[in-house]
Amino acid sequence: MNSHAAGTSNGGSGDAAAGGAARRNTRMPKYSKFTQQELPACKPILTPKWVVSVFFIVGVIFVPIGVVSLLAARDVVEIIDRYDEACVPSNMTENKLAYIQNETISKECIRNLTVTKDMKQPIFVYYELDNFYQNHRRYVKSRNDAQLRDASKANQTSACEPEKTTANGQPIVPCGLIAWSLFNDTYNFTRGNENLTVDKKDISWKSDREHKFGKDVYPSNFQNGALKGGATLNPKIPLSEQEDLIVWMRTAALPTFRKLYGRIYFDLKENDTITVRLNNNYNTYSFGGKKRLVLSTATWLGGKNDFLGFMHIVGGLCIFLAFAFTLLYFSKTKDFSVLAKASVYHYFSLTPYTSGNANPICGFGRKLGDHNYLSWNRHPAGR
Amino acid sequence: MASERPLLVATTPGASTPDDAPSPHPPAASLLPPAQSEPPLRADRLAFSVEVPDPFRPPYRRGDGPAADPSASSQQREREGGDDESRGVIVGEPSPEFAGNAIRTAKYSLLTFLPRNLFEQFRRLSYVYFLAITVLNQLPQVAVFGRGASVLPLAFVLFVTAVKDAYEDFRRHRSDRQENNRLASVLALGTAGEFQPKRWKHIRVGDVVRVASNETLPADMVLLATSDPTGVAHVQTVNLDGETNLKTRYAKQETQVRFSQNAGVGGILHCERPNRNIYGFQANLEIDGKRVSLGPSNIVLRGCELKNTTWAIGVVVYAGKETKVMLNSSGAPSKRSRLETQLNRETVILSFMLIGMCTTASVLAGIWLLNHRRELEFTQFFREKDYTTGKNYNYYGVGMQIFITFLMAVIVYQVIIPISLYISMELVRLGQAYFMGADKDLYDESSRSKFQCRALNINEDLGQIRYVFSDKTGTLTENKMVFQCASIRGVDYSSGKDTGGYSVVVGDHLWTPKMAVKADPQLVKLLRDSGSNEEPKLVLEFFLALAACNTIVPLVLDTRDSKQKLIDYQGESPDEQALAYAAASYGIVLVERTSGYIVIDVLGDRQRFDILGLHEFDSDRKRMSVIVGCPDKTVKLYVKGADSSIFGITNNSSELDIVRATEAHLHKYSSLGLRTLVVGMRELSRSEFEEWQLAYENASTAVLGRVNLLRSVAANIERNVHILGATGIEDKLQDGVPEAIESLRQADIKVWILTGDKQETAISIGYSCKLLTNEMTQIVINNNSKESCQRSLVEALATTKKLRAASSIGTQGPLLASETSTVTLALIVDGNSLVYILETELQDELFKLATECSVVLCCRVAPLQKAGIVALIKNRTDDMTLAIGDGANDVSMIQMADVGIGISGQEGRQAVMASDFSMGQFRFLVPLLLVHGHWNYQRMAYMILYNFYKNATFVLVLFWYVLYTAFTLTTAITEWSSLLYTVLYTSLPTIVVGILDKDLNKATLLAYPKLYGSGQRDDKYNVNLFVLNMLEALWQSLAVFYLPYFVYRLSTIDMSSLGDLWALAPVIVVNMQLAMDIIRWNWIIHAFVWGTIAATTVCLFVIDSIWVLPGYGAIFHIMGTGLFWFLLLIIVVTAMVPHFVFKAFTEHFRPSDIQIAREMEKFANVNQVNLSEIPMRGLS
Question: Which GO terms of the cellular component aspect does the record hold (chain A) (predicted)?
């Protein structure tokens, strides 16, 4: 009855368990380092030595990396050419949309680029789109990866709206906005008479070609709708070999992005003039986007980027902090502590990290673990 | 310096006042409403020669009992007549209109489980929020995550909780079934006295039930008859109120006659509606044309056991869920921890942040759409129209689009309110509870009881306590009265030695008293040699008085040895028990008690003493007496009581020396903290006796003013008493109580003692447990009217102010301030005064006064007053209160306080049942609060803040990205990573840290109780810290988002790769932040922190290995570039630098006490420092 009463006379939660515990509780708890929360443990404390060394080490690591990456970045040569405005015939600058939508107007356009510095092969050819939201929610979702991979799943067009099926219900392969809006400007490069062929092989990820885009999946009903979004695909070539599509379908993270167009395996000399014969097909005029052609060499760090700047800032800051803390820890001059009090103390006096009774700033270079610093030993009255 | 301080009230500290005498009613019993005026023993019907009284004969008995008292019964009738709420029960006729006796503690049945359980679970607001988000996500326009993915977390949580609830309910069902199917003998309908077995669940109100000895009562019943001809039954109420002693209940003589003759059914019983009061009952019974009034002593309650009575018959008046035990079983009110309440404030702030972010995103999205509305049709990445249908696809105009974006934003940013936090908190508390239970310092060897967490949601409150309200008996003291010394006829015998105890030979059995008392060898020798000498005879009388002058019932218990039996003295007063055991140890063994006589084994010679009369203890006389017919045909009066009371009735002239000596001894005893009693005796002459007998009978049968008459009869006979001696009984303090109280006081916890004891007893206990010291100024509030209460409160307040002012003037220097602040005040309030103070406007005065005092003692308080005092503090301050007690009378205060602790001692389990935590000893409070409470608080506080911070970091990273997606709430991070972030990527380390990390060692925390202050001051959880954490989240999210953004701005980076970086980087950053704040790295914490980062990477690998997801292969691709690794490094360093700088600076230049103590642990020898501390503390 006793144990039952334990069960019934509190209706609260877990009473049955409590009753059970009452029955079992006659055992001495087993003693172990674990149950007594006495597991051997390391108790790091941020001593001045540690603080200064951590800052110093971080700084010492960062500065060389910054130097190395500086050296690497110096080698990168980039040629950037914005052509979307320049390629519009002068009579149509007021109505670019009509220009791009009119199929009868030739879209061919010739650009001359001057090489600013020697460029070693391979030279990467990118196109850069600006203000093009490949990460727009509508756009990102509008694809079906099962269909791309597997020929038998051609009918799987879910999530592909509004580019799902043809008017008579035939599934579009590859379906969805992303594929539909495939970039279709083309570039041909010549240096004088020399044709700089663009190698368009292996511009996409190997993993995509092999596993994501089927070898037996062929485009069908593609770009047959009322509105053409971009490039057409050769229905004879399987998706796994449509590398431009594969590159395009790796949607870019940011609204300004580059995509690899191909590689040129020629070394370019300083002051070389390269003639680009391009087809300005892609409609960026409808949303005010920009198009650029980029030729760039690459290093082990990739292309040009802001990385080394950060490295320098952070590395330098850490070294500075190391010195600042060293000064703080060892400085005992009155002037300095007054200065510190005036600036830092007042800022931190509101911070709650310390106990409620306002501790005065402890002496610089205080002795660690000195019990005289305990609040009740400093003000013996306590609270 | 102490002696110079004036005493406000002239009290002699240290020595308890002479009238500190235990009453026949123990403190616990004195809290009961006054019992009916029926004397426990019907001495009126006993004469010298009557051996077995005939219960049916005496005609004069008619008038006995309150039923015959016209004034009383008419009052009662009036009250009940106007009371429509009473219920009528026909004895012997089961009535279907009242609740049956089946009980049901289970919450659910198979059918109701799902809806009810879901309903219960969704009473948590957070779950409703969670559900709303999930439902929102099911709308196709708004869906952010896949449908399955979004339902999963909620479903999982609900399922786990449901399984746990189902299991608990299954156990309840099982125990209900067992209980309901127990058998009881019930009077068969239409028969006279034929009892048939019936299952408990079929018993109905009106059934007549027969219960045998040691059986449990199936329902609340009014006793009709018992095996005892006088209608006495003994019950043990341990399951009800936790008191282990036997309680006496009576059947009314009218029914006793009728039912013991099997007269069958009849009579109508009117009783009050079912209520929770286990000490109150009012009813009347109409039988044979008479109206008999019934009170609490006539009812036996479900769950009690019948003891020492062969059988008892009763009529069921309350059954099943209406029984008092079930009505009292509603369980402790659910409490919420203070941190959890505070956390709501931050949740509201976060909700505003959430709404702000959602509004920003949706408004910007609307602006973007407005700016681009002409371009939407031909823009490749938007393409408004679906040309196969010719309609707009998923575009509903700018206004609607803003609304939809808002809803989607809510779904995407929902994690900023960390739902998983609630689950993490539960898990952390579970872990903390495990470690508290496993702590060997909280294990009570003597009662073999572990620490138990009964409420799992207020662990962290233990670290913020400012007030401790403690019961005295059984909590501070062991409630084990032990006879220590005696002064007999002016000679002090206090050198007790352990003896083997004394046994009595009865037939071929050996009866041994259950408890042996240390006996003084000199006294034993004196007793053995008692011949014809006068003095040894008086010594014998002394022990006879101890054995006879009480209401103890000896119970003979079997032991494993068939030859051995144990005598267990049961009685309502532990003092009397102690005295009976003491007498037994000296060879005067009370062996048997029946209604008319007692049998005492006097040094091997069994003698029968007739109990001719008994004058109960009352607070005016402060003594009790019995009239005993001795075997040698003399009649003696034995009296025992408080010294002041007994010395007043001695014949001073003849025994002045003895009185003087006894007084000296009494002073000595009470200064040792012993409870003292004086015993006296008087031999009555035949004429005196007859005169008394007549008066006694008249008084007992008097219609009007019986109590006063009886009192005057007693006063008449209790005079010219010979002092036999005095006794000293130790109310043993539990181990380590003074030290515990000292530690609590060091920790700035105010300890209040609330006791049912008298003022003097309370004060003497206050001294012995070091709560009161001689340096303290005592303020006593002890008044009998509201006006005088007010006066003394105002006076006391004025004096307090004066004292404070005086002390502050004399001391300008900061050094001296330490001394003056020790002008400590002690407030002693009496329960009588509390009646006029609590729940009136005087409460505020009391509160002001009490907060000025460092010690408060409340004496003679009723259970509800205890709760009232707790409420006094709880309602007026934000300070956390803790109540600790062991008895049923502490339940109200345990439930009222923020934290209720039950001592699982000997007084049953009622307090434990109502408590949030239970443990074996008062002194465990110190490790519980100072160590576990401190740890729990700082762990939980850190965990909550950390959870806010880590989720905010993640959500902000998501938010920054939305600014670059035309505000369309795309997440670069895959939806699986978004969902797993809170569940898997970051939650486990914080749970483990919340369970295992310790800021300081146990030894340090115990050595420096002041370290407890961080919890009291909310140092570890407050708005400032929250803001700080949010700022860190802001900075870190900026670092995590913008460093990759600037690096990859003009590159071929794809969304999935960058998304993986944005998923991995915050996980590493928040785990690094945790790692920086972890104080104690053991291998488990190492495993979880680094393991989580590894597990996150593995998860990213797995997610990016799924072909159908767009991000296939991305993580492998990006991890193949050196840039990724350097970037990760720089993100982590940039994100952590501010936290590191801040930490390094504050820890060194503005260290908290905890920080210094940590350093002491590491660099200084704590124990050594501690040793040098003690004298310092002693001075201050």
Answer: endoplasmic reticulum; Golgi apparatus; plasma membrane
CATH fold of B477-731 reads Calcium-transporting ATPase, cytoplasmic domain N (3.40.1110)
Question: How does pLDDT run across B625-658, given as a tens digit for each residue?
Answer: 899 988 888 889 999 887 777 888 887 667 788 8
Separation of alpha carbons A299 and B378, rounded Å: 38
Distance CA A190, CA B890 (A): 97
The secondary structure element, H or E, covering residue B254 is helix B253-260
- Residues 978-1007 on B with a CB inside 8 Å of A are 996, 998
pLDDT digits (tens, 9 = 90+) for B213-238: 888 888 888 888 888 777 778 887 76
Tokens of B207: 């059934």
Residue B953 tokens, joined: 């970091």
CA dist B684 to A172, B44, B416, B545, B630, Å? 121, 17, 87, 15, 11
Q: Which of A190, A152, A286 is nearest to A229 (CA)?
A: A286
Q: State both tokens at B552.
A: 């103890």
Q: What are phi and psi of A209, to 5 degrees?
A: -60, -40
Residue B798 has pLDDT above 80, yes or no: yes
The C-alpha angle with vertex B743 and arms to B739 and B746, in degrees rounded to 5, equals: 140
Are residues A295 and A267 in contact, defined by beta-carbon separation less than 8 angstroms?
no
CB < 8 Å to A163, chain B: 383, 386
What integer pLDDT is reported at residue B70 of this predicted model? 38
Domain B454-475+734-803+822-932 classification at class level: alpha beta
Task: Pinpoint the residues of chain B covered by CATH 3.40.1110.10.
Answer: 477-731
Cβ–Cβ of A371/B1160 closer than 8 Å?
yes
Query: Residue B81's pLDDT band (boundaries 50, 70, 90)?
Result: very low
Locate B1028 and state its tokens. Answer: 């700080």
> What CATH architecture is B89-322?
Distorted Sandwich (2.70)
Residue whose C-alpha is closest to residue A262's, from A338, A199, A178? A199
Helix (H) or strand (E) holding B47: none
**Cβ-Cβ contacts under 8 Å, A202 against chain B:** none
Is A27 an interface residue toward B (CB < 8 Å)?
A: yes
Q: Considering chain B, tell me which residue range(s) the CATH 3.40.50.1000 domain(s) occupy.
A: 454-475+734-803+822-932
d(CA B81, CA B272): 11
Peptide linkage before B34 cis (omega within 30 of 0): no
